[in-house]
């Protein structure tokens, strides 16, 4: 099944908090529950939370008791705010909600029921497009991968982070399907271990050879010349090409430059935010310290009781550390301020 889909008048999602141990697919029947599921990371990954929010807004339309269009639009506006507030960094969330709201206010729709149906149609279209866009990303990205390459990958950017197929991991799936013999070094990705739990799960199912490494081992492998390229996703890309992505991405990018390893960000143009001039303007989510402190060794908490912790969920990699940004419309190279808008308009 897809990571996120419309099912039985609700939004069905793979509960990613439980993987790889348990595969459960709860259905959420209210938009507030969808917003909570995004916040609690039942669903995570920028494109996947965009699709979840789109279906969440469609659900809000059906939940509303409004008999006329004006009242329905008021209810939808409230739901849009709640959904957008679920997580701050990935711009796909606001992008998806705004796209649906533009449909909702369309003059062509006469009744409240017309709006409800149009929203569901648009959410479904957005989800279908995500899969198609990811396949295009995969095809462009795979041109950068050579037979025999070892690829370092951070976080989870696979089918689970999208509606299906994935972004950076989609490049790896594509290169593998093309018959290239590749090996992947999978960062664990502390503190929530998206690499160890989710990427390892996806690569294992796909039969792609990989080794799991601790995040701190990345420099060791790069310095020994054992990494040919790094592939990461993005949660938001500013107009100048600065990339907000899972915490640890910046460290990897600096190490990659130091060691002459190409560093590619793979993301759909829905992750590009041309309204922000540079990466320092991107809001960075700081999550609960418990995510850092909850690690146990031999059944005992690793840290002494009562210590404090900081838990920024993302960091910003300045564009000078990137070799290129792979989008569904082509591979974007510097100068990003000039070439990213062209990629967004599909005029590369
Ligand atoms: O906190 P998460 O798991 O939602 O963070 C996900 C990432 O940072 C991914 O690398 C990014 O969203 C790209 S996913 C296609």
Folded structure, characterized:
The protein is an alpha/beta fold. The chain has two domains: 131 residues, Four Helix Bundle (Hemerythrin (Met), subunit A) (Up-down Bundle), CATH 1.20.120.420; 207 residues, Translation initiation factor eif-2b, domain 2 (Rossmann fold, 3-Layer(aba) Sandwich). Helices cover 40% and strands 16% of the residues. The strands form four sheets. Strands 6-5-4-7-10-15-16 form a seven-stranded mixed beta sheet, sandwiched between helices. Strand 8 and strand 9 form a beta hairpin. The longest helix is centred in the middle third of the chain and has 31 residues. The radius of gyration is 20 Å and the shape is globular. The model has no long low-confidence stretch (mean pLDDT 98).
Strand order of the largest sheet: 6-5-4-7-10-15-16
Radius of gyration (CA) equals: 20 Å
Total of domains: 2
Note the run of SSEs as H and E: EEEHHHHHEHEHEHEEEHEEHEEEEEH
* Total E-strand runs: 16
- The CATH topology of the largest domain: Rossmann fold
**Count of discrete alpha- or pi-helical segments spanning 4 or more residues:** 11
Q: Please mark out the parts with pLDDT under 50 across 5 or more consecutive residues, or reply none.
A: none
Question: Which oligomeric state applies?
Answer: single chain
Distance between the termini: 34 Å
User: What is the CATH superfamily of the largest domain?
Assistant: Translation initiation factor eif-2b, domain 2
Ligands and ions found: 5-S-methyl-1-O-phosphono-5-thio-D-ribulose
Classification by helices and strands: alpha/beta
What does the largest sheet look like? 7 strands, mixed
């Amino acid at each position: 099944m897809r990571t996120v889909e419309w099912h039985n008048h609700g939004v069905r999602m793979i509960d990613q908090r439980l993987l790889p141990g348990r595969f459960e697919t709860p259905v959420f029947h209210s938009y507030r529950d969808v917003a909570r599921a995004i916040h609690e990371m039942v669903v995570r990954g920028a494109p996947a939370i965009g699709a979840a929010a789109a279906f969440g807004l469609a659900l809000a339309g059906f939940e509303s008791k409004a008999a006329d269009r004006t009242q329905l639009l008021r209810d939808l506006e409230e739901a849009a705010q709640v959904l957008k507030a679920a997580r701050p960094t990935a711009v796909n969330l606001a992008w998806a909600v705004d796209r649906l709201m533009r449909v909702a206010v369309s003059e062509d729709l006469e009744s409240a029921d017309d709006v409800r149906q149009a929203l569901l149609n648009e959410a479904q279209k957005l989800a279908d497009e995500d899969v198609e866009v990811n396949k295009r990303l995969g095809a462009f990205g795979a041109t950068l991968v050579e037979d025999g390459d070892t690829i370092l990958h951070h976080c989870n950017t696979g089918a689970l982070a999208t509606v299906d197929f994935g972004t950076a991991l989609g490049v790896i799936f594509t290169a593998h399907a093309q018959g290239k013999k590749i090996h992947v070094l999978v960062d664990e990705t502390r503190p929530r271990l998206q690499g160890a739990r989710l990427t390892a799960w996806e690569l294992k199912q796909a039969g792609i050879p990989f080794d799991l490494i601790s995040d701190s081992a990345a420099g060791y492998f790069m310095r020994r010349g054992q990494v040919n390229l790094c592939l990461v996703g993005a949660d938001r890309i500013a107009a100048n090409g600065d990339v907000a992505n899972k915490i640890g991405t910046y460290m990897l990018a600096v190490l990659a430059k130091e060691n002459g390893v190409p560093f590619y960000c793979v993301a759909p143009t829905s992750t590009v935010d041309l309204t922000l001039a540079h990466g320092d303007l991107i809001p960075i989510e700081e999550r609960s310290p418990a995510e850092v402190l909850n690690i146990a060794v031999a059944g005992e908490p690793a840290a002494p009781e009562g210590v404090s912790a900081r838990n920024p969920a993302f960091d910003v990699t300045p564009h000078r550390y990137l070799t290129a940004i792979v989008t569904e419309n082509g591979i974007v190279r510097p100068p990003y301020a000039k070439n990213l808008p062209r990629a967004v308009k599909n005029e590369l």
